[in-house]
Design brief:
Gyrase A, domain 2; 2 domains; 3 strands; 177 residues; alpha+beta
Length: 177
């Protein structure tokens, strides 16, 4: 291979080539940056105006909410007071009532061998005992034994429950004090 250019000229030529290549790349990048800026400018303006509108709406809403929140807080405070009063009344009523577990255990403690209890319903201060008595005498004895306890003094046994002498279904109603 023949070297037609001397080494120094060859170095100068390579430097000029690299410089031209660099200038071309930088020019291309600058043109690309300008095109991107021109293309994104409308989006920027649109987003900026939308952000400003949202900030204005937020400020308006905060002003309206500050006025409404004072009224709302007063209304909620009043409703909370009513709720607290209601709950205090309910708690005091619950403390005054006879516990359901105690009612059931007391009923079963008074039950004799001739009685089969099928259901006990407790609604507010009303207790209903349903069952079957082997004999009329065992039913009357169970009813009398229930009435000996002060909480069950109001126990009522309908007369038609003691009409049958054997295997008599019964319903006893008790109004708790």
């Amino acid at each position: 291979m023949l070297n037609l250019l001397p080494q120094e000229e060859k170095k100068i030529l390579i430097k000029e080539y690299n410089l031209r290549l660099s200038v071309t790349i930088v020019s291309f990048l600058c043109i690309l940056l300008v095109i991107a800026g021109v293309g994104l400018f409308p989006s920027y303006v649109s987003q900026n105006s939308e952000i400003n509108n949202l900030e204005e709406k937020k400020q308006e809403a905060e002003q309206k909410n500050s006025k409404a929140s004072i009224d709302e807080a007063a209304r909620l405070s009043a409703s909370n007071k009513v709720l607290v009063d209601y709950l205090e009344v309910r708690v005091s009523e619950m403390k005054a009532t006879y516990p359901a577990g105690k009612i059931i255990s007391d009923i079963f403690a008074k039950k004799n061998d001739g009685i089969v209890i099928e259901a006990i319903e407790i609604v507010d201060k009303q207790v209903t005992i349903r069952g079957k008595a082997a004999t009329r005498a065992s039913l009357i004895s169970f009813h009398s034994t229930l009435r000996t306890q002060k909480e069950f003094k109001n126990a009522s046994l309908p007369i038609d429950n003691i009409a049958k002498s054997v295997d008599a279904p019964f319903t006893i109603q008790i109004a708790l004090p």
